[in-house]
Write a structure and sequence with these properties.
CATH class of the largest domain: Mainly Alpha
Structural class: mainly alpha
CATH topology of the largest domain: MetI-like fold
Distance between the termini: 52 Å
Number of domains: 2
Number of strands: 0
Shape: globular
Order of helices and strands: HHHHHHHHHHHHH
CATH superfamily of the largest domain: MetI-like
CATH architecture of the largest domain: Orthogonal Bundle
């Protein structure tokens, strides 16, 4: 009797497992084909001298990485990427938080301002880059025209080595601040209103005290997520550089992803480009690990 009952139970368990594998198979196959296999291929190519269109390739070990250490162009791209992230990430996070607090405390137009600031996130990067190219044009651009109206001669924003990275960083802040705004608004909405009333009863009467004692600690998980996403998005900058400056002038705006693209699809050195890609991935993983280790200890989970 017990054996006859156990057999249908085992068959039902096997059927459920088979159904689970069938349901997950499309996602697993897509993951393997679109992410896992290309990543493994990139890792393998980084240790070869493969060039696009070549008949074969040779295993050269760490020679590509040794060349990276001697490559002045790579050093410039790495420096520009670090400076770009150092400008874009804090301004995007603090600006998004400030705007979220202003919108949250307002009584009217929340949906309107939320949509306006989120617009750059859903806009086509290439189209927006073309608009910025017009706005920052040294002769016909509205920005320099406004500066000339008050007696200031504006610079060639995208054509000068002194201002090109600052201009791209300003565009990066504009692209990221709306995304951070929406995330911070979601975090602010999740904070119970009763805590503000309790803080006011305990003597926290000013807005700064309520922010310091209630809002900021409870925004910890949201802030950790925003900082991680913003720094990752900033390191991945490519579209604005490719459309507006192509890494110029004199490599003043060349970043890691553009250097990787140029080596792979302009000079056809896919092995060397793959080595840059691995360095880029290592930097991203190191940033995520560092942020998680440092900020996780300060995060308060309600």
């Amino acid at each position: 009797m017990s054996a006859s009952l156990a057999f249908p139970a085992r068959r039902r368990t096997t059927g459920e497992a088979l159904a689970g594998w069938m349901l997950t198979a499309p996602a697993a196959l897509a993951y393997a084909l679109m992410l896992l296999l290309p990543t493994l291929a990139t890792i393998a190519l980084a240790f070869t001298d493969y060039e696009l269109g070549a008949d074969g390739l040779a295993w050269i070990g760490l020679d590509n990485f040794a060349e990276l250490l001697r490559d002045r162009g790579f050093a410039i791209a790495l420096r520009n990427t670090i400076l770009y992230v150092a400008l874009v990430a804090p301004l995007s996070v603090l600006g998004g938080l400030a705007l979220a607090l202003l919108i949250e405390t307002g009584t009217r137009g929340r949906a309107f301002f939320r949509a306006v600031f989120f617009l750059p996130v859903v806009s086509l990067p290439v189209a927006m880059a073309a608009a910025w190219q017009y706005l920052l044009h040294p002769t016909i651009g509205p920005l320099n025209a406004a500066l000339r109206g008050i007696g200031i001669e504006g610079p060639a924003w995208l054509s000068s080595s002194d201002t090109v990275l600052l201009s791209l960083a300003a565009i990066g802040v504009w692209e990221n601040i709306g995304f951070n705004l929406v995330l911070f608004l979601a975090g602010l909405t999740a904070i119970p209103r009763e805590l503000y009333a309790a803080a006011e009863v305990d003597g926290a009467t000013s807005g700064w005290e309520r922010f310091r004692l209630v809002t900021w600690p409870l925004l910890g998980p949201t802030t950790l997520f925003v900082v991680t996403i913003t720094m990752t998005r900033a390191v991945r900058v490519f579209d604005s550089v490719a459309v507006l400056t192509q890494g110029g002038p004199n490599k003043a705006s060349e970043v890691l992803l553009y250097a990787m693209y140029e080596e792979g699809f302009t000079y056809f050195r896919l092995g060397y480009s793959a080595a840059i890609t691995l360095v880029f991935l290592a930097i991203v993983l190191a940033l995520v690990w560092l942020q998680t280790k440092v900020l996780e200890k300060r995060v308060h989970y309600a």
